[in-house]
């Protein structure tokens, strides 16, 4: 028999979005978004400004109604349910704490709204404040705390009523870089501890890659790819994703008889190609592109010369210009002080076949 719980049924936090569509006037903000999120998963919606991330999150939260499509929570259609009846935790960039309430009062607010018994409020409050390391600051007011501490209060307030899903809209956007990094680790740890489904909106690719089980990359209202962070970076399936996440060299190519050639006719190292002949773009990350000095006549790769060398601390960035005018970037970690290439050196740019991704439109 299932253990007795509070009034509502226990929810496990699985979310399914099915063909969600939202327009503002004639502008399409979200177009045909479908996504299945497992209970306990940490998923990021990543994309540039205006790509539809917040609108998607707001439709899950119930603050926006889709024009068509469905939002399911644990298999139940909640598309038309008002936000306050969805019982999902929501955290915004600007904390939205009540300035005249202490930390404890802010965090306890959702429980008081639900008319929870005072003793239960106290025990829940103590537990959640400990979890976000705010136990010692319970009687402070928001203006007496740093931005990072205020954001922790907002997280505690969203978690205190034990929602199955936490929706976070750029929660670290207002903080400086060091604090962002610190808090993203804290949120990740908290995610492991509480095991809630977390849906995290960000335009910061490092944040999305570092925190998520999966990343959904959005562009112009559509999801372009949903994959584990490693696959988003190593195996982009879409030109927008390849260019948006990390740095990449994009080399226009032609495929003939399964072989890839640059437009200047050079043979390009690439994984075995089994698709149709035609045009393609070969993607190779700067850290995978190697420059070999003076090997004119090499059987694979692109010939050219070194156009710029930039020392960036942990690495050196080499700008290479091919004989046909292509500009490519190679990044080499500075493991020794030795620099093997000089400006103007003739060299061949090449890479391991499996480090390249071939994309066709
Ligand atoms: N209330 C609104 N009225 C009119 N247009 C809107 C409204 N909300 C969003 N939009 C438009 O819908 C599109 C998607 O906006 P959305 O806020 O979802 O993008 P986003 O990816 O979250 O961007 P950002 O990172 O800048 O917040 C944008 O073109 C935006 O201008």
From TrEMBL:
According to the UniProt entry, the coiled-coil residues are none
Catalytic activity reported: ATP + H2O + polyamine-[polyamine-binding protein]Side 1 = ADP + phosphate + polyamineSide 2 + [polyamine-binding protein]Side 1
**Family annotation (SMART domains):** AAA (SM00382)
Assigned keywords, A-Z: ATP-binding, Cell membrane, Ligase, Membrane, Nucleotide-binding, Translocase, Transport
- Identify the residues that the record assigns to the ABC transporter domain, covering every copy: 15-245
Alphabetized Pfam families for the sequence: ABC_tran, TOBE_2
According to the record, the signal peptide region is none
InterPro entries assigned to the protein according to its UniProt record, in alphabetical order: AAA+_ATPase, ABC_SmlMolc_Importer, ABC_transporter-like_ATP-bd, ABC_transporter-like_CS, Mo/tungstate-bd_C_term_dom, P-loop_NTPase, PotA-like, Transp-assoc_OB_typ2
On the tree of life, the source organism's domain of life is: Bacteria
UniProt-listed Enzyme Commission number(s): 7.6.2.11
Keyword rRNA-binding listed: no
GO MF entries: ATP binding; ligase activity
Q: How does it assemble?
A: The complex is composed of two ATP-binding proteins (PotA), two transmembrane proteins (PotB and PotC) and a solute-binding protein (PotD).
Q: What does this protein do?
A: Involved in beta-(1-->2)glucan export. Transmembrane domains (TMD) form a pore in the inner membrane and the ATP-binding domain (NBD) is responsible for energy generation.
Which family is it part of? Answer: Belongs to the ABC transporter superfamily. Spermidine/putrescine importer (TC 3.A.1.11.1) family.
Q: Name the chain's protein.
A: Spermidine/putrescine import ATP-binding protein PotA
